[in-house]
Amino acid sequence: MMHPSDLFRRIHRRDNYRHIGRELSYKLFPVFEEKIIYVLFQGSNGMSDWLHNFLAIPKRMEPYADCGWFVHAGFARVWRSGNDTIMQELRMFIKMFPDFKVIFGGFSHGGPLAMLAAQNWHYLTGQVCDCIIFGSPKLAWGADAQRVLSNAMNLTNWINPADAVTAVPLHRWGFRHVREDLVNVRRIPVLSKLRISKHHQIYSDPRIYPQTRSH
After folding, report:
1. What is the pLDDT of residue 46?
2. Which CATH class is domain 4-208?
3. Domain boundaries, the chain
C-alpha cells in the first residue's frame, strides 16, 4: 500500500481523471504488483465544485430507501449524479480481477465523495474497504450518519489542525467528521491559520505522518 504522502500526490495530480455528472471527478488507479485498485476523487476544480461545497444543509442520503441518515447536501448531490457509473466500472474491474483489494481515496472536495463511494460499495457488496482521505470538509450530519459511515469502511481521515477546510461545515450546525487522524505539525501561530492554501496542501510531506496508528 502507498505511503499517505505518495497517495496524496497521486490524488492531487490532475491526470487521468474522468468527469461525469455534476463535475464528479474520479479515476481508477490499479497497482497490479500489489493487487490493489485505488478509486480516487479529485479536490475542488472549478466553480461548480465550490457551489456544491457551500451547499451545507443536511440532506437525507438517497437513493437508499428509508435510509434515515443525513449528509452534506452538496456532496450528496454530486455523488448521486454519477455513483451508478462508478460502481458499475468498479464491479467490472473486480469481476476481471477478483483478488484485488479496493481502496477509496480523496482530497478536499473529493474526501466526502470517497466516503460516499466506500459506503455505496459496502451497501452493494457487503465489503468493508479502506478509505483514506486528506483535508476533507465534514460530511456526516448527526450521530446516525457518523455511525453508518464508520461501519461501512475502515476510514483514515488525515487532518492538519491548521487546515481551515477541515473545520467546515461548523459542528454547531450539526456536521461532524466520521473520524479524525491528526498529522504531526509544528506549533501553529494563530495568524498562520489564515494561510489557507499552505496548510491545505501540506499532506504531500511524508514527515508529518505518525509511524504507527490504529483504528
Report:
1. 59
2. alpha beta
3. 4-208
